């Protein structure tokens, strides 16, 4: 399985971005995908998770109401729609895939999101 993340960039505070993560290879039909982020000098943080088959989602408190995780099953693509971005959202964002939310075996290469104040 390979994951290719894209969509990062520079945006002003209050702006929006949409990240995408394209999965290829044998993903199976029952798995979980997630977005993580890591800011300079900070630990990696789970941002959002989605169960691919049911669509049920989890969000970190820091992004609830601002970010939306979604998936396109036909194209095996995961999205993260981000609104009302804040400078604190600046980080490298990674997508991940695995059989459960705690077992994420495959990781994308990361895409940088920079939010200017």
Provide tags for this entry.
seven-stranded mixed sheet, 117 residues, mainly beta
Helix-strand category: mainly beta
From the N-terminal CA to the C-terminal CA, the straight-line distance is 37 Å
The biggest sheet amounts to: 7 strands, mixed
Low-confidence region ranges? none
Strand portion, in percent? over 45%
Number of helices: 0
Order of helices and strands: EEEEEEEEEEE
Commentary on this structure:
Helix content is about 0%, strand content about 55%. It is mostly beta strands. It has no helices and eleven strands. Strands 2, 4, 5, 6, 9, 10 and 11 form a seven-stranded mixed beta sheet that branches. Strands 1-3-8-7 form a four-stranded antiparallel beta sheet, with no helix packed on it. The model has no long low-confidence stretch (mean pLDDT about 95).
Summarize the structure in short.
The chain contains no helices and eleven strands.
Can you lay out the helices and strands and say which pair or pack?
Elements: E1 2-6, E2 9-12, E3 17-24, E4 32-38, E5 45-51, E6 57-59, E7 67-72, E8 77-82, E9 91-98, E10 106-107, E11 111-116
Parallel strand pairs: 2-11
Antiparallel strand pairs: 1-3, 3-8, 4-5, 4-9, 5-6, 7-8, 9-10, 9-11
């Amino acid at each position: 399985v390979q994951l290719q993340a894209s969509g990062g960039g520079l945006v002003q505070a209050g702006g929006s971005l949409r990240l995408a993560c394209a999965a290829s290879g044998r993903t199976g039909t029952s798995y979980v995908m997630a977005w993580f982020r890591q800011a300079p000098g900070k630990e990696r943080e789970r941002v959002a998770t989605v169960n691919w088959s049911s669509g049920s989602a989890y969000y970190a408190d820091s992004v609830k109401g601002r970010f939306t995780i979604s998936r396109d099953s036909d194209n095996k693509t995961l999205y993260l729609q981000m609104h009302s971005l804040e400078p604190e959202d600046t980080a490298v964002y990674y997508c991940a895939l695995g059989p459960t939310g705690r077992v994420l075996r495959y990781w994308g290469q990361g895409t940088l999101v920079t939010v200017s104040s």
